[in-house]
Amino acid sequence: MTDNDIDTSDIPPLDDDFFANATLRMPKKKISVTLEIDQDVWEWFAAHGEQYQTKINTALKMYANETKNNKTPSK
């Protein structure tokens, strides 16, 4: 499908009012760390294509979000 094939008739145009009320959200800065993980875990992520580091970050973020309401983090 090309861009011209997409029906955008139900999407209102972005006018000056939209941008006047918009909030700029910048992505959070990432840091570089050295992390020791089991080889089989690394192999699993690496086997699922490029950007495996981003996928590991996403998995960790999902876990953190799911457990953030716990009173005490697991040790």
Q: CA-to-CA gap between the ends?
A: 49 Å
Shape field:
extended
Quick one: biggest sheet?
none
Helix and strand element order: HHH
Rg, please? 20 Å
Uncertain runs with pLDDT below 50, 5 residues or more?
Answer: none
The total count of strands amounts to 0
Task: Indicate the topology.
Elements: H1 16-21, H2 39-47, H3 52-67
Helix pairs in contact: 2-3
What would you note in describing this structure?
By secondary structure, this protein is mainly α. The protein is built from three helices and no strands.
Which terms summarize this structure?
75 residues; 3 helices; extended
Question: Could you give a short description of this structure?
Answer:
The protein has 75 residues and is mainly alpha-helical. 41% of the residues lie in helices and 0% in strands.
